[in-house]
Amino acid sequence: MASLEEIRAERLKKLELLKQAGKNPYPILSNPDFNIAEVIRDFAELTESGKELSLAGRVMAIRTQGAITFFNFNDGTGLFQGLLKSGEIDAPTFDLFKDTVDLGDFILVRGTLFVTKRNEPTIQVKDWTMLAKSLRPLPDKWHGLQDVEERFRRRYLDSLMSGEVKKRFILRSQIITAIRKYLDDAGYLEVETPILQPLAGGANAEPFKTHHNALNIDLYLRIAPELYLKKMLVGGFPKVYELARNFRNEGIDATHNPEFTMLEFYESFSTAKKQMVFVEELVRTVVKNVIGREEIEFDGVVIDFAEKFKTISYTELLARYAFINDLTKITRAEAVLKANQFGVEVDPADVVEKIIDNIYKKICRPKIIQPTFIVDYPVAFSPFAKRKEDNPELIDRFQLLVGGYELVNAFSELNDPLDQRERYLEQDRKKKAGDAEVSSSDEDYLECMEYGMPPAGGVGLGVDRLTIVLTNTKNIKEVIFFPTMRPKDKEDKG
After folding, report:
1. pLDDT for the residue 436
2. Rg over CA atoms, the chain
């Protein structure tokens, strides 16, 4: 078997043959008359007309039988067959095709449509033009890229050779379109907020830090757009949303990538309870419109979005699966002991609620498969949520779990600036104790709140995780076209 270097050298020779024949291997103009999907759709009508037409695409297969050459080509909209027949095309044009065209090349062909004896729609080529000569061979068409890491690094080849992979990313786009339509139809305004922020706020996560030379200040890639979106509520915009790229300097695993896509939306004069109803219908509608039905299969289990979503308390889940019965009395030492029993890692800087939440994530969350809302979280678990009026030790918050994944986090937004200040002070104490993920105090946000922030319901939905569930995959890298990867040279050095 020829090496990559040998194949590339041979293709460079073919490139020279094209130039010697007076052909530009990378011309500006292509101008096909139709895309392949259109030809497939209107094949009978176009064939009956008998007119010549031009098509373009990437050569995916070549079969030569003496004076006849069949090839398949794909323009991204579909696959079609071409035929070159000696005697029906001038000899130099036929020979140049045979001598220079390889799998992976982009070509433009001109000819007439017909149906072969095997009833295959085909274009009989009268002339052809090289549009882009490929210098590297495509992966084996039957096996594609077998190495998982290479699939992620060379996603362009992964999607090119695998219809399933390409379909997955088309579906991801459809999910985003469906989300936008639902929110737009509900009267929400799509807005844009800063990616570079003077303080990283709106979530508990360690940020990426950079420096702006002209202003001589440090800036952070946003971990969430939350605080800016709530400033817009103060500014008189009652319903806003942003489909945002967020960045968190955290570990990479099956559910986390340092760069990811979140939907966040906020509604003035709303509540977590009202948003729960809205979220249920939003998710159900997206599933129905994108998948075409309200049931999906995920990891061998049928998930039913048509049924009313269940509701269970956070404390009940911990009691049921982790045997933690009273969150108000558990000490840090007891929490550490529980974590050790379940094989949950504990950092010396972890406070008791973080330890408990890590236990919940490992032990409880994977048990929830059908769409289920989790409610009644302790106050310490969110610095931006309102306390429940009937129990001030709990916050008015919910999460939506599906297939063991957290898809949605939402709450009645805290709009009391004095309460917010107290919670910021508590966050500052945790940061000083070594927790790099807690939000820093944001005086600018507090000042904004003091002008009066309307009561509101806010929701965050993980687009990547929703896509994982709806495409029946189990790794976030499968649904992000260009996931973050360790460079090969770093990999080699360990």
Report:
1. 72
2. 29
pLDDT below 50 — which residues of the chain? Answer: 494
Q: Return the CATH architecture of domain 4-132.
A: Beta Barrel (2.40)
Residue with tokens 């499968």: 478
Q: Do residues 292 and 470 lie in contact, with contact meaning Cβ atoms separated by under 8 Å?
A: no
Q: How many CA within 13 A on the CB side of residue 445?
A: 23
Reduce the secondary structure of 263-275 to three states and give it as a string: EEEEEECCCHHHH
Q: Is 252 exposed, middle or buried (0-12, 13-18, 19+ CB in 10 A)?
A: middle
Q: Are strands 372-378 and 391-402 parallel, antiparallel or unpaired?
A: antiparallel
Q: Which residues pair with 113 in a beta bridge?
A: 123
Strand ranges (E), 214-366: 217-221, 239-247, 259-268, 295-298, 301-304, 310-313
Whole-number Å distance between alpha carbons of 147 and 289:
34
**Domain ranges, ordered by start, for the chain:** 4-132, 155-309+370-492
In terms of DSSP bridges, do strands 53-65 and 68-74 run parallel, antiparallel, or are they unpaired?
antiparallel
- Give me the pLDDT at residue 141, please: 62
d(CA 4, CA 135): 10
pTM of the model: 0.92
DSSP string, 425-489: HHHHHHHHTT-TTSPPP-HHHHHHHHT----EEEEEEEHHHHHHHHTT---GGGTSSS-----HH
Positive or negative CA dihedral for 170, 288, 192, 201? negative
Length in residues, the chain: 494
Q: Does domain 155-309+370-492 have CATH number 3.40.50.1100?
A: no
